[in-house]
Design brief:
- With 108 residues, the chain is mainly alpha-helical.
- It has one domain.
- It has three helices and two strands, in the order αβαβα.
- It has helices spanning 12-22, 64-67, 80-102; strands at residues 55-58, 75-78.
- It has a two-stranded antiparallel sheet.
- It is globular.
- The model has no long low-confidence stretch (mean pLDDT 87).
- Residues 35-67 are annotated as: Disordered.
- Residues 35-50 have a biased composition (Basic and acidic residues).
- It comes from Planobispora siamensis.
- This is HNH endonuclease.
Length: 108
């Protein structure tokens, strides 16, 4: 990590513990975003930089309400592209679950 990236206004202490200290300013994605990161040995190699800070995301797919209460050991630091990919993957998984649970009883 070359230049220090300022912590966000909300959740600064948690972000500092997860993104800056544990992750060392590097994305922790190991394919959860849908990209297998084959060129990089299975792990994203992007580092945060000014204007492109890491985002915190739950390690498992939980509701936003639950995510807001998770401790640092249940969060992962992700670069913006991996964070976007993770959100897309989880949205697609939720939609598929809803479609499957609707079964053949659906009207439409």
């Amino acid at each position: 990590m070359n230049d220090p990236v300022p912590a966000p206004l909300a959740g600064a202490a948690l972000w500092t513990v997860v993104a800056a200290e544990r992750a060392g300013g590097r994305c922790e994605c190991r394919g959860e975003c849908g990209n297998p990161h084959r060129k990089d040995g299975g792990t994203c190699r992007r580092e945060q930089r000014p204007g492109r800070p890491l985002h915190l995301a739950p390690s498992t797919n939980v509701s936003d309400t639950k995510a807001a209460t998770l401790p640092g050991d249940q969060l992962m630091a992700l670069c913006p592209p991996c964070h976007d990919g993770l959100l897309r993957t989880r949205r697609r998984d939720r939609e598929q679950t809803i479609r499957q649970s609707a079964g053949t009883d659906a009207l439409f």
